Amino acid sequence: RPSEAPVTMRLCLLLVALWGASCALAAPAPNPNHRVFTSEAEYVAALRATPESMQEHLSVHIKSTAVWQSVGSPDGANAPEQVHLSATTKNSEMVVSWITPNKSASVVQFGRRSGSNEDTASGSSDTYRYLFYKSGHIHFATMTGLEANTRYYYRVGDPAGTMSAEFSFVALPDVGPNVPFTFSVVGDLGQTNFSQQTIDHMAKETDCGMILHVGDLSYADTDQERWDNWGRLIEPLAVTKPWMVGAGNHEIEGVLDWKFIAYDHRFKMPGEQSGGNGNLWFSFEVASSHVIVLNSYSSLAKSDDQYKWLQGDLKRVDRTKTPWLFVIYHAPIYNSNHAHHEEKEEQEMKANFEPLFHDARVNAVFSGHVHSYERNSAVFQNQTVPNGRAPVYVNIGDGGNREGLEAEWYDKPEWSAFREAAYGHGKLHLANSTHANWQWHRDLDSECKVSDEVWLVNY
């Protein structure tokens, strides 16, 4: 554990932080087209004043100055905050996490009636250190025995001390071939006003039962207090439905075994239950789908654990039970944007993993990293596949982060079906075993608009 780290390793972390600071000081001069906005209204006005032919060259960046407060913390000492849900491999379970300043009991009280304490589950807590930062106590507890599609009310904290406000969620449905379900899909969220707008739009989609986040979560970038700020930002939505995460490059904050130190401590994904590796690669089933989460920044060689685990997990998928198969990872292998084009991780994953996706009949692959939206046609080895008999690749790294949009594109390849540099999120609706609807909701206006839509036909 980081608290037990030898002095030499702590010095290594300090050197990494100093190296990062020196890189920032040596950064090139800013793009003259890069504008910094302090509000959505200012950004929209500038965009509308820019000729359409030049809009793709307008790089936008909104200041990240807000500090969000936890909505669930009552007055009182050691109040729980940063509450969020996550799923396990069982639809009858739900994990809840929260943070307190000091050590206390890890208890969740839950039931089917508001104000009731029909059931109680106890968990555990832990802390971590990063240089001079020490986290609060990060608690995890698992609610079990949940009935499918049933609303539950819950509170977390220490019954002998301070409990949170009451929240509620709807338990996941049973797994089955024709069970409908809807996901929200987001990437590269960060914590700007644009991030808040994306979250607000997702919150309005009450039919969505789970959030899939394809990496680059908080953009804390070693500033651990910004992880706390981000936890408060997402809390109003994350207390209502499971928030499933994958690691991106902005989750890399340490060295050696501590590469994803904050990410590993602050979330609990079903890696152990699915035979994967903690929060790094794992899988789970929900409704009519099997979802696989991979890590672009762990070893991608065919001889290493992640590849071997993926081979085994794909073989275990029962398409008669879960006819839909989706894969999530951060760095896209199909990308016609200038940004992050054909990076090392992307090339290695394309060479080693793409044949597995194709042979397993993966329906869609969701990535981020590039701060724009792009949906590709069914494609394999750079060739568009007729009749959709190959994965559809979607890049959705446009959640609202502080680095701004990336709007410079290469000439449009045949496999690129739709692309646009704007903030937004996706919505994936599984209608039945044969048809699913994908939408991209652009955040440019006060109400999110469907700017891209396609029906996926299972094959």
Shape: globular
Structural class: alpha+beta
What portion of residues belong to β-strands? Answer: 25-35%
Q: Helical content, roughly?
A: 10-25%
Query: What is the β-strand count?
Result: 26
Q: What would the average pLDDT be, to the nearest integer?
A: 88
Continuous helix count: 8
Spatial separation of the terminal alpha carbons: 45 Å
Low-confidence stretches: 1-40, 52-65
User: How much is the radius of gyration in Å?
Assistant: 21 Å
Largest sheet report: 8 strands, mixed
What's this entry about, in short?
The chain is α+β, with helices and mostly antiparallel strands and about 450 residues long.
Descriptive notes:
The protein is of the alpha+beta class. Helix content is 19%, strand content 29%.
SSE diagram, text form:
Blueprint: H1 7-25, E1 34-37, H2 40-49, E2 59-62, E3 81-86, E4 94-100, E5 107-111, E6 119-122, E7 124-126, E8 129-130, E9 133-134, E10 137-143, E11 151-157, E12 167-170, E13 181-186, H3 193-204, E14 210-213, H4 224-238, E15 243-245, H5 261-266, E16 282-286, E17 289-293, H6 305-316, E18 324-328, H7 344-352, H8 354-359, E19 364-367, E20 373-380, E21 383-384, E22 392-396, E23 416-420, E24 424-430, E25 435-442, E26 449-457
Parallel strand pairs: 1-2, 13-14, 14-15, 17-18, 18-19, 19-22
Antiparallel strand pairs: 3-4, 4-10, 5-6, 5-11, 7-10, 8-9, 11-12, 13-24, 16-17, 20-21, 20-22, 20-23, 24-25, 25-26
